[in-house]
Amino acid sequence: MSETATLTRSAQTTEHFDVLIVGAGISGVGGAYHLTQQCPDKSFVVLEAQDSFGGTWWTHRYPGIRSDSDLHTFGYRFKPWTSAPIATAAEIRSYMGEVIEENGLAPHIRYHHKISAARWSSQTNLWTIEATRTDTGESVWFTANFLWMCQGYYRHSVGYTPQWDGMDSFKGTIVHPQTWPEDLDYKGKKVVVIGSGATAATLVPAIAADVEHVTMLQRSPTYFRTGRNAIALAEELRALQIQEEWIHEIVRKKILFEQDVFTRRSFNEPEKVKQELLGAVRAELGPDYDVETHFTPSYRPWRQRIAFVPDADLFKGIASGKASVVTDEIERFTETGIQLKSGKALDADIIVTATGFHLNVLGDIAFTIDDEPLVFADTVTFRGMMFTGVPNMAWVFGYFRASWTLRSDLVADFVCRLLKHMDEKGAHRVMPALRPQDKDMPLLPWIDPENFNPGYIMRGMHLLPKRGDKPHWQHTQDYWAEKDEFPAIDLDDGTFVYG
User: Fold this and answer.
1) pTM greater than 0.85 (yes/no)
2) In this structure, are 380 and 258 located in the same domain?
């Protein structure tokens, strides 16, 4: 740090907290709740770069934005979800707002705080956090005993858009869903949505009624599940006037059991699961629709995320003729649309690039450990939440095949238990380290591409920590195992080095 910066900082007040949480999204708000309940003696602050809470559900403003996980499991285990299982961003933020209000979390959250640097010192056993107030431009500093990274895994400021030839020549509007303009007028326009994931499947039916026509242009198909946006069991229990807390717990258990069965079937009998998924699509689009071309992926189910299409709205939009799917590759953009490699052309007034996002594992924060820059990819993960060589830090990375919040709750329980254990031992520092029996194990990429391989992970794999070949040293992506394993983690088995 320069002399000028040191003098400037000396004129400022550095606030200290026991725990500093990065991000006021679903994980950060949940983490704050668990601290108040399980570690009420700990002081903490939540730093959020945006001007409100919600994370994804605040920054993403495209039409129809909704969850692709059911809210009985995406919602917190401690607060019942009482509405339709697939919810809009506004409904999710309302739910989160209730959690903040009901538990007195608002005074702990600082909005407009963008963190630029996090520095660990083994001399003081503290993290020093440097941030900028985005509303005033002021630099602010914090110190914390423990850092809890809940900022998510992608860059909020800009989405991922491939660079195609001729993009500059297009006379219409190009927009990414992540930065959707509030004043974009798509009524009566010809719209092409590039992509086939959950965002495209949400956006297409949301705008179909208002546009002249919307085309979902995909390079290759994606699997979808469809059904009513309702849980029959929840409806029946409510009719019986069962308490909402009971309904929440019962429905969560039912959904998690069914998800577990479905996931295991996708590995054990992938062809049968594939035909079931395609059969549901055919039932909506009719026998004459070319499901083989447009909705039959080349990979087995669950190698990429399967989005749920509530009430089959995507397929109803296609069946109505207001929406269509084209499976082809882009040759180039033209003045009036897109030229495809097949020789066909798509006219468009608006092109939406629903092509994913940039993996951003540490929130664009410059980390140093005792003045040495942290190379995250050189670390080995402990259970996908702590890292060798990185003291007093936990990181939330949710599940690919289950709701994100399921894991954020498990990590929160672990962090609170670890903090209390450190107090009992009189320890000021903790980090995982490979045990003697782990020293010779092979170090592998964060996730096996044969297991799960979405584009954003493949593009950013080099940024992620390594995993070992033992469950101890990997993010197993298995909630149904981790829900029992996490509470049983032995904090004194030699994995954790205390100081």
Assistant:
1) yes
2) no
